[in-house]
Fold this protein.
Amino acid sequence: MTMPAPRVAPLRADCLADSAGGLTFDVTARGTSDVAHLVLRRRDEPDGHEEVALPLVPAGDGRLRAALPSTVALPEGRWDAYVCAADDEPRRLVPGTTDLRSLAARTPSGSRGHVAVRIPYATRQGNLTVRSWLRAPHAEAGDLRLKDAGLTLRGRVYGTSLTPEAYAELRDRHSAGPARRVEVAVDQDEFDLSVAYAPLAPGIWDLWLRPGGEAGPRVRIARLLDDIADKKAVLTYPRTLVRTPHEPLEAGPYFTRDNDLSVSVTRPAI
């Protein structure tokens, strides 16, 4: 009779975020002496795997430590975490204790022309993955305020400057039609805007900032500077019944899987 192979205990990694945007991984690896690297492998790469290898060094008490400084570029995407030994197949990591408190109070300078955000999280299968954003420039959405059949928000730009010509756009995600212009009020690096639901046709409307007006870049408005990797499942907002001259509609804001800000407009369910 063939005996089943012994079950191998998963390797766990504690994660600590620093205020600069770097991450430290402490891997519990007692009895594992030949682990050389922690490898982050970018998911859904069409041309093969893009990887970042981080050396693992002894940190005492049977632990191995790897550091991902904020100065190491990590392109935007989802990066699955593995440990790699010399001659063995990479082993998927599972999350241990995660300390992301510094991310909630982080305010990047934007002096490098971009904002880099890395948030470790547990996948549905219980594995460790790092969600990375690299935005150049970036428009950060503050708290959303819902009132009068619309929403208002204050945001901040990084890596660029706001000019008197700045404005925002609502663009229908599934239509090539013209964008709807939204005026903004500028206060140094911060901006205020209001979105009225009534003029919007049914669809998904993505919110963009034009910090330099028509001649400048188009910057997706998102909320990245906190410790929530997937806001769509966590931050939910009430929908509003909107009376239009043609038909009643329901509308409300939401954050996409990439933590970008959009407005959904639908016909009420009958």
Observations:
- The domain at 11-135 is CATH 2.60.40 (Immunoglobulin-like).
- The mean pLDDT is 89.
